């Protein structure tokens, strides 16, 4: 029976029962973490081969480039080819970087401030106001980059097909709006993949700012855990076809393929953007770590090698997501007190509890020893206007701990919902 | 006989003989590179053990930190300890970074522009003019960072004891002067180690700018190739003792210890600076590559392990420097047409040919198939006011190629000097 259909007595009975269940949970003295999208230990063990390769001096020279020495700003050519194949872009469009796509994104924004982008009239540091579109719920670290530079963050609601494009198209008429953060495939946290129409509308935006930038964080480009690899539109091509070749930078990394924070990252962009970026990057770096590039290339050989490897991740991830979804389906759905997405890839389940209850659920979980991502973290300025969204990150805890955490979470959702209704 | 003591006939004979020698060199069709401070192949082979370690999952957790997963902004604690021991600074003062100290330096300057440093009144991007002191000859990539940000570069002549401190002390009275580039041990290219007095005067500067920064690039901190390791003043302590604890950032890396561009880099600074930097870095990176940190720690274990390893480099480097210096001593010294430093560490021999002759020597070498670092590159704006300095980088070519290159260089020095005298 749905909670909203209960009479006062039924509700009170439900509340007392939930409270008892909660006290039992607390008594267990749990200490569980569902807060960050960190791969679990089993997943880390999948890539131990990368740590234990045999590499001879002859292996280190590929395409005439010595991976062990200085040089080759754009990175090891073989690593650029691997990313080009994975993203379906051209070799010339790929820059192979360091251990973190987040840093490449930060650095691009930093360069927009210090030097300007290719089509900037002046560096953003010389502007009075810079605004950035933030589809939300979204990735907190994107928003942190924007706030670090003092931008004004504009929340754009997410729909089932990606950001609300009617709003985006309105907002970009403001020349102070300089870009948008996108996680287009298995979005963080909703697990939504942008529809073809959304992608087409993004690629053909007509922003007032000549240096408007699509920050296309394709973090989960090959991260299906349920079903086969799903091919995805090449945003560079889409932008070029729409007459916006220089409007997009795409980012990806192997952080959730091999080792988080010790993989290799890349960005891809038009050749005109690349020529511009090379001039700037030439002052910052001789090249990123080409030996790590080499290791990844020798280990995977090609995109198919990566996809095969992702199947091993999927085998570990699928049961964890199933457990989360089963608990929500059986423990919460009957009461009609929350909704959630059912992703087929990525790292999160996005949960919407009753309006005004997310912080309360978070606190109840915390008091019972279960750490979740902060309520509100998925919104600009950490402010969820509905206080409704919670991000479940099932990857890190082992299955038994995840189960214990989900039991707690379900109890807390019920308790918070009952509290709210009873207070009315 | 010195060239300046020759009469016209002697000079003409000398010139004709040099010209003949030069034509013989050209006829050999050489293709040699003495342009960059890149370790040679033999040196790269020294660290193959780092590429071929056996690392078990149990090895990857050190001090409770899992090197294979996200987290620990400051880097693997064991890597920070290693750098702390190498530089003689405190663990808390060390940030372990990515593959390049150059990038850490660039990023610090970038943050000064976008956010300001700890004691900045405002970000440097908001200032009309930023000036930076550039001891010269110096490292071209330092100057490139400064020019990339549009700074005004002020040349400070190098003395045998480091930068001319009388000038430095004058210049820092200008509040627009925001910092100085220093390579304090085996400076690039002169191989000069700053004297204790110079270091004391630098540490006790009283700059008008509250956010003046010593960019202390200790690139060659353990890079003796002639004799034992020479302990070196801890600049962080010196600055603290002089009441300037936050005035310095020190940089180092293992690029010329293990693999160029694939080693690990660090910066060290006061704890107040570190607290400030952590806030900014938190938006840029989750952490740099802790697996590469781990590899280096497992490989070297401690500072003594690094010093032992540097002895192997020294065995390869010493004969190359001896060859360069022997050629100059026997082939050039008798004519009194050039001077040079005799370093005991670092990567370069700094050569001063007759005023107005460096570009000519460079061109003659190039025409004979020997690439040297561009004449002027060691000065701000690539402008050597005397057109005299050339940087010899002996590390990269094998010994036989180095010998061939030095033969060419000596001929070119003679030819250019004779041309100059005959034109008078």
Structural class of chain A: alpha/beta
The number of domains of chain A: 2
| Total count of helical runs of at least 4 residues of chain A | 14
The rounded Rg of chain A comes to 23 Å
Round the mean pLDDT of chain A to the nearest integer and report it: 97
Biggest sheet of chain A: strands, sense, closure?
8 strands, mixed
Number of DSSP-assigned strands of chain A = 15
Could you estimate the helical fraction of the residues of chain A in percent?
Answer: 40-55%
Most extensive chain-chain interface: A-B, 59 and 59 residues
Q: Which quaternary structure do these chains form?
A: homodimer
The fold-level CATH name of the largest domain in chain A is: Aspartate Aminotransferase, domain 2
Helices and strands of chain A, in order, run as HEHHEEHEHEHEEHEHEHEEHHHEEHEEH
**At the fourth CATH level, what is the homologous superfamily of the largest domain in chain A?**
Type I PLP-dependent aspartate aminotransferase-like (Major domain)
* N/C terminus separation of chain A: 19 Å
- CATH top level label of the largest domain in chain A: Alpha Beta
Strand order across the biggest sheet of chain A? 4-11-10-9-8-5-6-7
> Based on CA inertia axes, which overall geometry of chain A fits?
globular
Low-confidence stretches of chain A: none
For the record, the CATH architecture of the largest domain in chain A stands as 3-Layer(aba) Sandwich
Residue share in β-strands of chain A: 5-15%
How are the SSEs placed, and which strands pair?
The structure is a homodimer of 424-residue chains.
Chain A: H1 8-27, E1 32-34, H2 41-46, H3 48-51, E2 61-62, E3 65-66, H4 77-87, E4 94-96, H5 101-114, E5 131-136, H6 140-148, E6 152-159, E7 162-163, H7 165-171, E8 177-182, H8 196-203, E9 213-217, H9 235-241, E10 248-253, E11 265-268, H10 271-281, H11 290-300, H12 303-331, E12 338-340, E13 349-353, H13 358-367, E14 370-372, E15 389-392, H14 399-423
Parallel strand pairs in A: 1-14, 5-6, 5-8, 8-9, 9-10
Antiparallel strand pairs in A: 2-3, 4-11, 6-7, 10-11, 12-13, 13-15
Helix pairs in contact in A: 1-14, 5-6, 8-9, 12-14, 13-14
């Amino acid at each position: 029976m749905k909670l909203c259909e209960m009479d006062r007595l039924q509700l009170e009975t439900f509340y007392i029962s939930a409270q008892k269940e909660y006290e039992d949970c607390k008594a267990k003295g749990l200490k569980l973490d569902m807060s960050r999208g960190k791969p679990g230990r089993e997943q880390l063990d999948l890539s131990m081969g990368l740590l234990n390769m045999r590499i001879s001096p002859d292996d280190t020279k590929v395409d005439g480039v010595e991976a062990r020495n200085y040089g080759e700003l754009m990175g090891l050519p073989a690593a650029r080819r691997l990313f080009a194949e994975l993203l379906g872009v051209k070799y010339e469009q790929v820059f192979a970087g360091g251990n973190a796509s987040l840093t490449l994104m930060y650095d691009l924004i930093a360069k927009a401030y210090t030097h300007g982008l290719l089509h900037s009239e002046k560096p953003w540091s010389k502007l009075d106001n810079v605004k950035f579109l933030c589809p939300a719920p979204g990735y907190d670290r994107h928003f942190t980059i924007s706030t670090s530079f003092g931008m004004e963050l504009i929340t754009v609601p997410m729909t089932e097909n990606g950001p609300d494009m009617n709003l985006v198209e309105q907002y970009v008429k403001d020349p102070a709006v300089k870009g948008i953060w996108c996680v287009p495939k298995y979005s963080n946290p909703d697990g939504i993949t942008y529809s073809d129409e959304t992608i087409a509308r993004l690629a053909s935006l007509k922003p007032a700012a000549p240096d408007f930038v699509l920050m296309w964080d394709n973090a989960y480009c090959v991260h299906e855990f349920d079903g086969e690899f799903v091919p995805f539109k090449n945003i560079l091509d889409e932008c070029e076809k729409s007459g916006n070749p220089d409007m997009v930078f795409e980012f990806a990394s192997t952080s959730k393929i091999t080792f988080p924070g010790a993989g290799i990252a890349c960005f891809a962009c038009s050749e005109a953007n690349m020529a511009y970026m090379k001039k700037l990057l030439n002052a910052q770096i001789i090249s990123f770590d080409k030996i790590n590039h080499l290791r990844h290339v020798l280990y995977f050989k090609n995109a198919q090698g990566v996809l095969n490897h992702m199947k091993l991740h999927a085998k570990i991830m699928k049961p964890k997501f199933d457990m989360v979804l089963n608990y929500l389906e059986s423990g919460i759905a009957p009461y009609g007190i929350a909704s959630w997405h059912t992703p087929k890839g990525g790292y999160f389940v996005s949960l919407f509890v009753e309006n005004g209850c997310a912080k309360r659920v978070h606190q109840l979980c915390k008091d019972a020893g279960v750490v979740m991502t902060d309520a509100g973290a998925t919104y600009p300025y950490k402010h969820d206007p509905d206080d409704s969204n919670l991000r479940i990150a099932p990857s890190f805890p082992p299955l038994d701990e995840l189960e214990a955490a989900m039991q707690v979470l379900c109890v807390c959702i019920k308790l918070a919902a009952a509290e709210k209704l009873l207070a009315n």
